Write the C-alpha cells for this entry.
Amino acid sequence: MKILLLEDDHLLRKHIKKYFELKGHRVDSFSDGEQLLEKANLYDYDFFIFDINVPNFSGYEIVEYLKNKGIDTPVIFISALVGIEDIKKAFKLGCSDYLKKPFELAELELRIENILSKYHISSLVRLKGGFEYNTDTRTLYKDSEPIILSKKQNDILYILVKNRGSVVPFETIADFVWGGDFKDYKTISSHIRDIRKKVGDKLIKNVRGVGYIIE
C-alpha cells in the first residue's frame, strides 16, 4: 500500500513512516501542506494520513482540495484538536476517521485496516475479459501472463483501474500522467487506442466529451 503522510511533528512523522515501512508499505511524508500539494501526485496513493494544524495549507484545506478534484482515497486525520466542532468539521469534509493525539501506532494501523476492509481494497483487481491488474506492481495480466505496456499506457490504465466503476475525466488523466497544464486530450485518446490494440475494445469505455471508464 502507498501512503501519503502529512505531519509537521518531526519525531511523530519519522515514527509513523518507519512503522508502516517496516510493515511493507511505502510512505511519502511531508511536514508542510503547500509542499505536499506541489510535490505529491495525489492520485497515486491508497491512503492518506493527515495532521490538521500544519504550515501553509491545513489538513482541512488539503482534504477539501481532494474532494474538489474528485479524489476519494480514504483519509484519517491525526490531530491534537479534540473539540467536537473540529471533529464535526473533519467528518463533514469527508474524512474516514479521526484519531486524537497522543495515540499508539498500533491503533492507527487498526483503524486504517478497518477503513480499508470497508473499501474492499485489494492489490489484485479482476477485470472483464479475463484480465487482472496488480495495483502494487502496476502489471496487467491475461490468463496469468503479463501484458507489456509503455509507461504512459500503464499510467493511464492504473488511474482507470483505481477509479473502476467511475468515469475518469480527461483532465484527471492528464493531471495524473503528465501533471501541470497538459491539455492535449488527443494524446490521451491515442494512448487509449494503443492499449485497446492489446486488450480489445471492451475493457475501456469512452464517455464522449467527458473521459473513460473501466466498469
Observations:
- The radius of gyration is 18 Å.
- The chain has two domains: 2-119, 124-213.
